[in-house]
Amino acid sequence: MSKIWIFACLFGLYLLYSFTVYTKGTEQHIPLPATTQLQVNKGKQLFQQYNCVACHQLYGLGGYLGPELTTAYSDPGRGETYMKVFLQSGSRTMPDFHLNNDDVNALISYLKYVDETAVTYKAY
Ligand code: HEC
């Protein structure tokens, strides 16, 4: 008899869990102020337009010619100023895209946002 109660309990919890996951979702949304959101969107567009992912990885996906960029923003050895230099003038192996200041700032905003979303990624 007690087996039936255990089954009923587990099944009830399963239904509750399913309902929560399907109605609330599991993704966390990081709300941004409207102007920052525009910058981030522009940066993402530029990142796609210049095909940065051909050489760089985000969340482990992408090319392997350049370094992983997911957590570059909060990396104590890299960070904003360090990244800006590469975007403004390239290096021997990183192409110079002749980006203007607005584009560089938008790309940095996008990479900062990516860094903020990489919560579980940083744990490894
Ligand atoms: C042809 C391949 C290639 C493309 C395309 C490319 N990069 Fe790079 N990038 C590199 C390489 C290689 C390095 C390392 C350069 C070095 O250390 O001298 C680098 C370095 C960087 C760095 C410095 C980070 C670090 O850890 O050293 C940033 C930031 C960066 N790239 C951003 C971008 C962005 C944004 C784009 C798109 C607009 C882009 N890259 C497109 C190859 C590329």
Describe the structure.
The mean pLDDT is 91. The protein has a two-stranded antiparallel ribbon. The protein has a single domain, classed as Cytochrome c-like domain (Cytochrome Bc1 Complex, Chain D, domain 2), CATH 1.10.760.10. By secondary structure, it is mainly alpha-helical. The structure holds heme C.
Alpha-beta content class: mainly alpha
Question: CATH-wise, what's the superfamily?
Answer: Cytochrome c-like domain
Residue share in helices?
A: 55-70%
Order of helices and strands: HHEEHHH
Total E-strand runs: 2
Count of discrete domains = 1
Shape assignment: elongated
Spell out the key features of this protein.
mainly alpha; Cytochrome Bc1 Complex, Chain D, domain 2; 5 helices; binds heme C; 124 residues; two-stranded antiparallel ribbon
Q: What's this entry about, in short?
A:
The chain is built from five helices and two strands; from the N terminus they run ααββααα.
Q: What layout of secondary structure does this protein have?
A:
Blueprint: H1 2-24, H2 34-49, E1 57-58, E2 61-62, H3 79-89, H4 101-117, H5 119-122
Antiparallel strand pairs: 1-2
Helix pairs in contact: 2-4, 3-4
The chain binds heme C.
